[in-house]
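Re: Re: ligand-bound prediction request (bumping)

Still looking for help on this. To restate: I need the protein modeled with flavin-adenine dinucleotide bound, output as structure tokens. Inputs repeated here so nobody has to scroll up.
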Amino acid sequence: MARSDTRVNGQLTTRASSRLLDGIVTFCRDFEIEVTDARPRKIDICTDIGSIGFACGRQGLTIQIRAESAANAYMLQESVAAQVEAAERGCAAALRWNRAPAAGEMPPNFRVGRVLSVTETDGLFWRLTLEAPDLAPFARDGLHLRLALPPRDRAPVWPVVGQDGRPVWPDGPDALHVAVYTIRQVDPDSGRMVVDAYRHGKGATCAWLAEARPGDALGLMGPGGGWMPSAGHLVLAGDETALPAITRILEAAPAGTCGTVIVETARTPPPLSLPDGVTLRFVARDRGECLEAEFARTGLGPAGDRHVWFAAEKARAAHIRTLLRRDYGVDRRESYVAGYWAADS
Ligand SMILES: Cc1cc2nc3c(=O)[nH]c(=O)nc-3n(C[C@H](O)[C@H](O)[C@H](O)COP(=O)(O)OP(=O)(O)OC[C@H]3O[C@@H](n4cnc5c(N)ncnc54)[C@H](O)[C@@H]3O)c2cc1C
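Reply:
Sorry for the wait, this slipped through. Here it is.
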């Protein structure tokens, strides 16, 4: 999909526009999304894939989206719809956009790919190599994607855009299993992508991959989730699910980068190729060692030229986020902290 300055305008006729706006500001604060301009009846939000402006008017809420591609604009439209729906059930149906994909088409950020191979790597991961059309955005606009896996015993049914512009996902026996992964490698020229999925033993993704055969169809949605950090000093920490992203960040780090990588795994992790100034600390979960303790012992580098990156189970990520913001004075511009999976409660 070509890169272009895409602008989309939306209108939501509602009497609850001020309340909706307050809800959006709260959501942004909770998820550390940058609000660049907050005035009583107007806000501008800056995301990794574009900006969204909201203004309360006589008719309700007006929305202006600006993104670098139609697919990114559509993802932002979807986020707006999800927020509006979360704030007021049924309200998203009243959203009107001046530009939306035609009903019945696949959403612009969705593609169908095919499995080329699935192999075991390092005893920890299934390595999925797939091919799909138009992978350029996946090499450019975000580090992550959603895999949408169809049930094994049925012909796949893919999402389509509904009459209201929102995607309609197959449900019941045709429901797709959707999970977020990091794009480990991508080559738009050959149309190939690699994803490493941790074999944690419980998930439907690993079960699907264990049975996958070359030619099997699967859905790809995205990309999203921001880009690789760049700073002279990097602190990269996480569990197995973070390893594909950590490996990719290290591969892209320029010579001269210094810092620390902390990886917690149940079994010996794969060897990592590190820039000269970066040290690796391996935390063995089975020996009772713990990521947070090692993290607390780690120097975070000089303010202004550092980036602290952490991804692991959701509650652990929340703990580290609090620590960084409250005790270490590291704000979101110098850090990325994400819950990559949720333990059963
Ligand atoms: C931005 C982002 C990038 C990610 N990148 C990767 C990646 O490159 N590789 C990767 O392997 N994962 C990655 N993850 C994590 C992955 O999305 C989750 O582990 C997800 O739950 C996997 O889906 P599933 O189908 O295996 O299991 P689900 O259907 O989501 O969950 C099934 C069960 O498995 C449990 N479970 C899920 N993950 C784990 C785990 N790690 N350890 C133990 N139990 C678990 C759940 O608690 C649940 O009980 C990423 C997540 C995010 C948000």
